[in-house]
Amino acid sequence: MFKWFGSYLTSLFASMIIYRLCFHPLKNFPGPKLAAVTKFWHVYRSRNSTNYLVMEEIHKQYGNLVRTGPNEISIFHPNGHELLDGANNENNRDVWYDILHPRKSIIFIRNVEDHDERRSTWSYAVSSKATKEYAPRLHSLVKDLSDCIASYNSHPVKVNDIMSWFSFDAMGHVTFGEDFGMIQSKTIQPVLIKQRRALGMMAPVNDAIWLARFAFQYLPFLHTVRDWLDTAIFCEERIQLRLRSKTKTMDMSTFFIREFDDLSQQRGLKFATDILHGNAISAMVAGSDTTRATLISVWYFLSKYPEHQHKLLSELATVNDGDVSGLSRLLHLNAFINEALRLVPPAMTGESRIMGPKGLWVDDIWVPGGVKVTAPKYVLHRLSSAFKYPDDFIPERWYSRPDLVMDKRAFGPFGVGARQCIGKSISLLETRLVLAILLKRFRVRFDPSYDPTTLLRDLQDEVTAQPGELWCIFEPRKDVS
Fold first, then answer.
1. HSE of 87, CA atoms in CB hemisphere, 13 A
2. How does DSSP classify residue 401?
3. Which residues take part in binding heme (predicted)?
4. Measured in Å, how far apart are the chain's first and last C-alpha atoms?
5. What number of other Cβ atoms are within 10 A of residue 404's Cβ?
6. CATH for 308
7. Are 384 and 39 in contact (CB under 8 A)?
8. Is 349 part of a structural domain of the chain?
């Protein structure tokens, strides 16, 4: 019996390999042969959470269109973002976005119609009117962050930690109307540690997400699987507490709960609860971890290129640090943030799509329908065809030196089109406020014992960007009381 079963499996896998190498519609696309045979090639290459480097390497070796899986193409073309999410395309999100199933949200939903239906709630939650409600709370929280840093008395500060505390507390205020108190206590919430471990667990299997789904379903006793499940439970508990509260303060949950009430009557309690829980998980992960990466990066670049501190201070002197509209109009401030987002995008790879039935054209090459396609931001943001001196940090390229940007389409840290990150405005608001308030109070520099290559050398791709350690000294300015 085992002999026959072994023969069957051998024949099955042999036929699959022959088809994928010799008869598949993607057979003529360049790429590693093992990648054409199995996605386990990609899982193995990304095992150290460095998928962004894997993608950069295959781009350099194979060109702009590379076969990176049995039915997958990676696009390294300035128009990659538009090809995936631009107007009037028929692309759907890949199965990775079922990771929260049966929960759903605008971030973790695949069907275009469902996505459009869910988007209105989030649009209200992050609208300009809602953001005006959040801004004073965020401004006050940044003041607390400033006092926290001052308490170190010019001793070295691990920027990764303090920006983690801030981004998680900020997420709590904006999403649940709740202060998790990490800045005040200078301690990390256990759930944040679990979230990081869970994202680290998923990083190598992002391109074979069925492995994670299998583990969630059948191996809940595994430590890293338990971390993910506990993270989800934490979010569900927070939104349920918010559901029962009588607070009148506006937060994102205000809109999530309104949707929940409507859906409970229209579609039933189970459906409404899955949406409510999906929204809570999405808001927590996307609302804290991505902003955290950006905040760490901006302090790294300010320490590495201190000349920009003077330029930013001169510009910031023209506005009040609580003037949200004024900060959004400052050329060098926003260019500095853009350049940090270009070199360390919060989501470096992933965000794959399944091509619609008509496929797509990339220049004069046709990618057939039904194929999984990715356009890794980390590589697109460094394309020499789109940016002069692509690896150099030059904020001026975004306003006074436009010649250094040859193709703006390659820049898409928040995505493009209807699937653009809906929390973009809040993330940028938090980053502007942190820069404006802290720069007016502190000069920042690397700790003398810190190796400046550490942050980028140890950068990890774990669904969101995880920068390496950053140790800085924040020295109070003498002209600030």
1. 0
2. -
3. 421
4. 83
5. 15
6. 1.10.630.10
7. no
8. yes
